Structures
1.
Amino acid sequence: MLVFLFVLGVVFFVEPLIEEYPEDARVFPQLTAAAVLVGSGLLLVRNYLPGPIRSFVAEEVSITSDTTELDDDLETAEPPESDEERVVEKETIGSEYGYEVNDTAFVVVTAIVYFFAGWAAGFFWVTPFYVVFYTLWYKVRVTKSVFLAVLAMAILWVFMEFLGMPFDQGHVFDFSPFLPDFRQFLPFFLEWGGR
């Protein structure tokens, strides 16, 4: 997984240079890729780092469970009778139908599917489906899911309009002709806003 993240960081760092993105548009993906490269690189070589840095880098962190609650429970309460008492089950659509899916595996698999679908069809078109699917999996209200999907599309639209990022264009399918050019209305809004 770390090697995959490292390679992905290299791809996102080099892609804006190869595709000749405008200099302003390459800043965000390259800074994000640099953070991923540094983090995954440190984790890859953690066994060869000096003691204090190794203890900081190799610290156990879980993104799917709240370790502070477990630590507080261990300090203040009696020890649980079994490990089953300590596990907090998350309500998901899968658990409703009897399928138990590990949260980490779900996040990793859906993120990989999202990345490749976005690469093929364009992130602007894939993001709302991903956001709605992901939020509904964890039983978030439908109105909140739709709001988050629209918000994600708005953020991508801002990146497309003002930074020139081609998020509406996939490498396999190009749906960009279906997206209207809102810049044609910009002079109207600027004129109207000045009154």
2.
Amino acid sequence: MKKDKAISPSLKYFFKHLERRSEQIREEVEAYQVSHNEVPFEEVESFFRRIMTQNIFIFTVGLSGRPESTILNKAIFNMNRVVRLYYSTSFDDNESGYIRIRPDRATQLIMVERMHGVRPVPEVMYQSHDECHVVRFIVRWLLRRIDWKKTHLRNLELYKAYIDQERQEQQAKEAQEEARRIEEQMAQAMKKLKGKI
């Protein structure tokens, strides 16, 4: 009975190799996970979700192939961490196109690609690790295409919220300055009072 329960040298050899291989695989998985972390993309998605709700119009190529003004809500599609911004929607598939913004885990970059035609091949327009740089690129791209005859700042809810926030920040800054000034005056008065005593 003892011989059946004892670990033979061949089993020891097998388990030692099994342990080594298991450790190698665990290290490879950890190295892959470290090098292929999730690319932060929340700020870009949040930016597009917020501006989609506004009455912002951009110039696009319409169905007939002529330039037309399209509300941003109809030009942006956001699904599964991929944002599509259509600049051309035509019956002729060769003339249809959009900008695709997506995180790429392999390169650890956020890619901004132009997709145009029937079977589009991605043409990299911009890539960056930083979400803010990508948003800056998209803002510049959008500013060149905004229809200013239909888009009015006074009609944008986000702009009104932006103005309110700026005003509140300015008031808070002025209140801090006032409190600092009063504190300095009090300190000077205390010095004068101590000097007289």
